[in-house]
């Protein structure tokens, strides 16, 4: 789901958007993986994000992909017992 909001910044009010993905929304305990990707506003120039923002997001997406089968196996084991 998207969590969208507006906030005051030095460049005026800007819109922000967070993507929230939940593997199993019914569980009581969760592991939260969080990162951010941002851009700078530089008058007269185009600047979209930076490696220091994009790399942690890419790493966490890969970690989430790797954890998927392990979490599914754990859920299956819990249902079996």
From TrEMBL:
Q: Please indicate which superkingdom the organism of origin belongs to.
A: Eukaryota
EC class, as a word, reads transferase
- Keywords assigned by UniProt? Acyltransferase, Transferase
Catalytic function, reaction form: N-terminal L-glutaminyl-[peptide] = N-terminal 5-oxo-L-prolyl-[peptide] + NH4(+)
- Keyword Transferase in annotation: yes
**All copies of domain Peptidase M28, residue ranges:** 18-68
Q: Does the keyword Acyltransferase apply?
A: yes
Q: Which GO terms describe its molecular function?
A: glutaminyl-peptide cyclotransferase activity; zinc ion binding
> Which EC number applies?
2.3.2.5
Q: Which residues form a coiled coil?
A: none
Could you say which protein family the record assigns here?
Belongs to the glutaminyl-peptide cyclotransferase family.
**In its UniProt entry, what is this protein called?**
glutaminyl-peptide cyclotransferase
User: What's the source species' lineage?
Assistant: Eukaryota, Metazoa, Ecdysozoa, Nematoda, Chromadorea
